[in-house]
Specification:
Layout lengths: L1 H5 L2 E2 L5 H26 L4 H29 L11 E2 L15 H25 L3 H28 L2 H33 L1 H11 L2 H26 L10 H17 L10 H26 L4 H24 L1
Helix pairs in contact: 2-3, 2-4, 2-5, 3-5, 4-5, 6-8, 6-9, 6-10, 6-11, 7-8, 7-11, 8-9, 10-11
């Protein structure tokens, strides 16, 4: 690692030919990145995919002009020099390798790419005393600024109000599939499945600390189980439900929170005070689940409430009867 760092050239030590070669390879890399973004977006965001296709073509055009300039000034052989060979040169985060990136993340990354390139060339132009190099770097900075202008034109050309609405619906659908559905399943499991062991322990022992420990163990164990199950059973490639780790995180965290909500009151030493508060928390949890189902899953509120509250009441009754017996 240290050897690779010490072998990097400083930008100030590059010749004009090497700077031009660096610009050519950078334009080529950026065009490939934009094509990767376009391919990721093609199925769900056709209009934005067309934007990135157009930006890739713009990068190709700039690269061709740079190659012609190199051919005129320095000949046919272009030195092999890339970003990683130059100390202090702006780097590209390899986010384009990540599948199922949100649309807004991709757009923000593209904007950052153009901004970084323009800022770097401007700073480099200000730091050189050679007139020819200063002009070359200034031209490159202007080209990057032109990329941003062209990107704005492409958005206007390809993304109309109907396309924006369609993409917003697709983004909302993806959010629901990746975060809301797994999180809701986890919240339901954590809130309902832990009712029986927590309240059975509470009524059997009337010991708040023991009840809290059992509730914590049940909640954390259920969260770990639900999280790994969600991540392992569907990689999201065919279903389009998004990253398995995001879904697993949503499911695991919400499962744990659902159980801990009515376990935490048992930190209160008085048994009946703790139990009363725990029952109130359970009531709030179940109605929150019904509200989420109604808002995001478009389940009629009355039906969602009846399903969740009735199921929760049955599990609670089972725990209280078993513990009380």
């Amino acid at each position: 690692m240290l050897s690779s760092l010490t072998n990097r050239r400083r930008f100030s030590d590059l010749s004009e030919q090497e700077i031009l070669a660096l610009a050519i390879s950078s334009e080529e890399d950026d065009a490939q990145i934009y094509r990767s973004y376009a391919e990721q977006l093609r199925a769900d965001y056709a209009a934005s995919s067309a934007v990135f296709d157009g930006m890739a073509l713009e990068e190709d055009g700039h690269r061709k002009r740079l190659i012609e300039l190199h051919r005129t000034r320095f000949g046919e052989v272009i030195p092999l020099i890339r970003r990683e060979h130059v100390a202090g040169f702006y780097a590209r985060r390899p986010v384009w390798l990540v599948k199922n990136l949100p649309l807004e993340t991709i757009r923000a990354e593209a904007e950052a790419m153009e901004r970084q390139a323009e800022a770097f060339y401007l700073r480099a132009a200000q730091s050189t005393t050679d007139a020819g190099t200063r002009k070359l770097l200034g031209d490159l900075a202007a080209a990057e600024a032109g990329h941003k202008t062209r990107a704005t034109d492409l958005v206007s050309e390809h993304v109309d109000s109907e396309s924006e609405e369609e993409e917003a619906r697709a983004a909302k659908r993806q959010f629901i599939l990746t975060w809301v559905q797994p999180g809701l399943a986890g919240l339901m499991d954590g809130s309902v499945s832990t009712l029986a062991p927590i309240f059975a322990t509470a009524f059997a022992t009337q010991d708040t600390w023991t009840t809290f420990l059992v509730g914590t163990a049940a909640s954390v164990g259920a969260g770990i189980s639900m999280g790994f199950t969600e991540a392992a059973h569907d990689d999201g490639v065919l279903s389009g439900r998004g990253s398995p780790w995001k879904r697993g995180l949503a499911s695991g965290v919400m499962t744990t929170l659902g159980g801990m909500g009515h376990a935490l009151p048992y930190l209160i030493p008085d048994f009946w005070t703790a139990t009363t508060i725990a029952m109130i928390v359970v009531f709030i949890e179940l109605w929150a689940i019904a509200w989420i189902q109604n808002k995001f899953m478009e389940t009629p509120f009355i039906r969602a409430a009846l399903q969740v509250v009735l199921g929760g009441a049955l599990v609670f009754a089972a725990g209280a009867l078993i513990g009380g017996g």
